[in-house]
Amino acid sequence: MEFKIVSFVLGEEEFGVDIMKIDSIVELGKLTKVPESADYVEGIMNFRGMVIPIVNLRKKFFMKDLPPEKKAKSKVIVVNLDKKKVGFMVDDVREVLTVSEDQMEEPPEEVGGVGNSYILGIAKIGDSMMIILDIEKVLSAEEQLELGKIVENV
Which has the closest alpha carbon to 80: 107, 49, 112, 47? Predict the structure, then answer.
């Protein structure tokens, strides 16, 4: 069995997401900050006439944030989460790859406690490795509810 994966980068690390989970990949547009939202919520953005929350994956994964001039060049991966659209801000989107089952390994149990639940596996591509995310599990059910409330209150 093969998977089509969209690869993206955060810092020096490469990640992948199943292409079937992605609605669109867009440039980072004008953001409106939302008071009292979680640290990893960059704000809200107009996406095709719809207001969607933007989650900074660097902050969500406890990585150092980009300086403003580099952040402006970020990309947004828009996904459908429980009938709502959410944008995940990443440094850059690379390419679409085909990954076979024999290139995938289960994530080691020692890898990051809670984070392990949203790591589908580790793909070995050439000499490098890519962390494949279950994008629907990156945000907990509670976090998804909070994002829904942000959009409803706008």
Answer: 47
Considering the entire predicted model, what is its pTM? 0.92
Residue 116 to residue 21: CA distance in whole angstroms:
19
pLDDT in tens, the chain (154 residues): 888 999 999 999 999 999 999 999 999 999 999 998 999 999 999 999 999 999 999 999 999 999 989 998 999 999 998 788 999 999 999 999 999 989 998 887 766 555 568 898 999 988 899 999 999 999 988 898 888 888 776 6
- CATH of residue 8: 2.40.50.180
> In which domain, by residue range, is 110 found?
2-152
Number of domains in the chain: 1
